[in-house]
Amino acid sequence: MPETRLPGTPPPAFPAKAPQGAGWLDHGFHVDNHSHTDGQLVYPASGALATTTERGTWLAPANRVTWTPPGFDHSHRFYGRTDVRLVVIPAHECGALVAHPSVFAVSPLLREALLALTDRPETRPGAHERLRAVVLDELAAAPEESLHLPEPRDDRLRAVTDLLHADPGRAITLAELGRTAGASERTLSRLFHTELGMSFHRWRTVLRIHHALVHLTNGHSVTDTAMACGWSNPSSFIEVFTEVVGQTPGRYQADVRQG
Questions:
Q1: What percentage of the chain exceeds 70 in pLDDT?
Q2: Helix (H) or strand (E) segment spanning residue 51
Q3: Which of 66, 110, 114, 229 has its CA 20 to 30 A from that of 127?
Q4: Is domain 149-258 annotated with CATH 3.10.20.90?
Q5: 20-148 carries CATH number 2.60.120.810
């Protein structure tokens, strides 16, 4: 997925060092690589968000929230006009969450707590701290649903993943990719498991889902998205998308439009 900065697009309207904030970002906005001394939750109340670190890319549609612990260099890309909600988790509270970047499912209560934290001024002392405690409690119980696309270090494996990034919908076998990369199918299969923690098939599926989310956010039909991203028919795409994302492509697209 290309990293695009829209010319003349203003930065997010988050006050410097504010504990939380909200703002609208246009499709394609890119926040350059940076890090924080505190943890950071970024929730796309509508649209979609990709967070990239040296460990790969995490994608969050509007039913997920991204988590970046302190000290991790990361960048963001936004797809669709995105209602961005930012909540800073002080470093001393970050032990309640996992120590690596991730994406969590957003329960109805977590969504309302995130919106309340970022929508309204603090009217009573300690109100935001109490809401943040609710957020942490919900995240501690929420499943990690990372839509994580790890990236390899091995040159042979990187040659393969670069080809797949360039054309995720291409029907090509691992053996065919291996001939281009100068490695056997068996070697590449082992590298996918040892370096990336998943099979070739699973990695390519997650890559295709990343691209499908962007296509759907851009208003392409479910059928056109399925064909562009490598599925032979819409029904198989809908089945896989629903299993990975947690909602049908049609429901996801309707939520994007409502946002």
A1: 91
A2: strand 39-53
A3: 66
A4: no
A5: yes
